[in-house]
Design goal:
The complex is a heterodimer of chains A (292) and B (150). Chain A has 292 residues and is mostly helical. Chain A is built from 12 helices and 4 strands, in the order ααβαβααααααααββα. The relative contact order of chain B is 0.26. The chains are: A mainly alpha (292), B alpha+beta (150). Chains A and B meet through helix 1, helix 2, strand 1, helix 3 and strand 2 of A and helix 1, strand 1, strand 2, strand 3 and strand 7 of B.
Chain lengths: 292, 150
């Protein structure tokens, strides 16, 4: 019996060393197992659709290329960071501050970037994700503050660590809220730059294109049976009714033979400035509710 | 005494089963971080872990928006136990735009889009070998679908 107990303890210890690299022979061993109910359930689950959306960094870059300027008043004030005491608020505002950090960094605002990095760290720490903004990561961020590409990689890695940690610890709902907060803040910043009297055509186009990501985001949130996630999904469904006024015109897709192939055709969007204004107003209302 | 031993055995088995369940997440995270993410450079990932444990013969669709003006790299990174995993890129009518090679390990594709659009990345794991079927064993392992932009 003693041998059985020792075997069990060693097995558990071996299998539980999650964050360390697992030797291939152990991976091979544990991944060959008898078909059981759990496997069948997993097989059914795996035949589904995963949703993923572009990062706030990518959105911020697109908006910057469309001519958006830096407007600090569009960001969530740093002092708000102490107001977020529940895990739902912390997750949503980790996404919000992550988008603000991306925006400040892309516009070469070193000091603001540090402020928003600290806010992101505070939210991640409050959620118990200690490995995301480590002393080493912060040191790397400080050293690369003026190198946009390095910063993008370091910050994306930090958010990847948050996302994977929460998923690993069965807190996918919080992970989904971070993604939602980041997407909403990125779009909010974009809509703030629209001049009602003379709207920038490129910016309106980029805002309209968020229609696709919104659909993915709603699908992602709908996959959770969680009140906080459902609440955000409900608000995004209201936003979707405005985005649904944007018409899609389809053409056949093609793939070029270039060194880097280009997928041509697909969807083009038709919209009016009024629709973009309506989207801006709805986004503002949802976002202000999140950061209050 | 025999009853006590049986209870201890059951508790130990529960601990092992629980540790095994947790390990599949950790296994995927660790695998992705060490074996997959470095292959994406110089493209920047979107900060989301898109990975799961798959069984032989399974497929999955990942829907994503690709923005005009950006260049993208898709990598389907998988543990060796699953064999040669393939991926296809489909438009929203499910027309195949790209299909990875049969014998490629961790296949990848770099491309751009003319108009911002929704595409579907379909991952498929090869069916298990006959010898495993006969033994009622199934292969599983982690697949990470990485999408980076620049």
């Amino acid at each position: 019996m003693k041998r059985t107990i020792i075997f069990c303890i060693i097995s558990a210890a071996l299998i539980s060393c999650g964050d360390e690299e697992i030797p291939q022979e152990i991976v091979d061993d544990v991944s060959t197992k008898v078909l059981d109910d759990q496997s069948i359930e997993r097989a059914e689950r795996a035949q589904k659709v995963f949703q993923t959306i572009p990062s706030p960094y990518e959105t911020a870059l697109l908006f910057e290329e469309s001519g958006i300027g830096y407007n600090v008043d569009a960001l969530n004030p740093v002092e708000n960071v102490n107001k977020y005491t529940t895990s739902v608020q912390q997750a949503l505002n980790l996404g919000v501050y992550g988008a603000d950090l991306s925006y400040a960094n892309i516009h070469d605002q070193s000091q603001e970037s540090m402020f928003y990095m600290n806010c992101s760290k505070k939210m991640a720490d409050a959620l118990g994700v200690a490995g995301a903004f480590t002393a080493e990561a912060i040191e790397r961020i400080e050293e690369n503050m003026n190198n946009r590409d390095s910063m993008m990689t370091i910050v994306s890695d930090a958010f990847w660590t948050c996302d994977s940690y929460l998923k690993e610890n069965k807190q996918d709902n919080l992970s989904a809220l971070i993604i939602a907060g980041g997407w909403l803040e990125g779009l909010y910043i974009g809509t703030r730059s629209i001049n009602d009297d003379n709207p920038n055509q490129d910016m309106m186009q980029r805002i309209a294109e968020q229609k696709y990501s919104l659909n993915n985001l709603i699908d992602l949130l709908d996959s959770y049976d969680d009140d906080a996630v459902k609440n955000i999904a409900d608000q995004l469904t209201i936003l979707k009714s405005s985005f649904d006024k944007i018409e899609e015109q389809e053409s056949e897709t093609t793939v070029s033979k270039d060194d880097v192939p280009i997928i041509g055709g697909g969807s083009t969007l038709n919209y009016t400035p009024e629709t973009i204004k309506e989207i801006s107003a709805t986004i503002e209302s949802i976002r202000n509710e999140i950061i209050k | 005494m025999r009853l006590l031993n049986r209870k201890i055995l059951i508790v130990c088995l529960c601990i092992v089963a629980n540790a095994f369940a947790l390990s599949s997440y950790a296994q995927c995270k660790s695998f992705t971080k060490k074996r997959c993410l470095p292959s994406l450079a110089p493209f920047i990932h979107n900060g989301q872990l898109t990975s799961a444990i798959f069984n032989a013969g399974e497929t999955a669709d990942i829907e994503m928006t690709f923005n005009a003006g950006k260049e993208y790299r898709i990598i389907a990174c998988s543990q060796e136990t699953l064999g040669k995993v393939k991926f296809k890129v489909l438009d929203k009518t499910r027309k195949v735009l790209y299909s990875s090679e049969e014998d490629e390990t961790n296949p990848s594709w770099d491309f751009k889009v003319e108009n911002t659009q929704q595409l579907i990345i379909q991952i498929s794991v090869p069916k298990e070998e006959q010898k495993n079927k006969l033994a009622q064993f199934t292969q599983n392992g982690c697949i990470s679908l990485l999408v980076g932009f620049k």
